[in-house]
Amino acid sequence: xxxxxxxxxxxxxxxxxxxxxxxxxxxxxxxxxxxxxxxxxxxxxxxxxxxxxxxxxxxxxxxxxxxxxxxxxxxxxxxxxxxxxxxxxxxxxxxxxxxxxxxxxxxxxxxxxxxxxxxxxxxxxxxxxxxxxxxxxxxxxxxxxxxxxxxxxxxxxxxxxxxxxxxxxxxxxxxxxx
Length: 178
Description:
Elements: H1 2-8, H2 11-15, H3 18-65, H4 67-85, H5 89-94, H6 96-118, E1 121-124, E2 136-143, E3 151-156, E4 158-161, E5 164-167, E6 169-175
Parallel strand pairs: 2-6
Antiparallel strand pairs: 1-4, 3-6, 4-5
């Protein structure tokens, strides 16, 4: 029976000493350990990537979940700006009650802007700045001495939330005379 078992062993292994066979087994196991460590490191890296992507998606969702609400809120904000800009300055100074009312509008406007800024909402009012198609929408061109592409008039302020455009600033830009 032992002869049969010896016949089943390949000739090369029959010629190897037990130490050589043991060393081959150790080498083989070390290679398997290296392969498993590599797979483990790749799996851990993939898990980290999935966590990072999930965290980024959650942050984006959180930042932009309010986009619709903020779009509506900026209309209210702009109405406060219009009220402040169009207030009758002479009348305000003459009548203390009107002055208190105007001061309340300005304070409310400032508080509203603080809340928006706290939530990473930024007002775009690019008067006398270079036109930027990423944040501005030119609705007219005006012949002017100013450098071509300079914003001469802001018809409607724009808004961003975390550098994502909510609405572009509607502007009139300069074009060369002639």
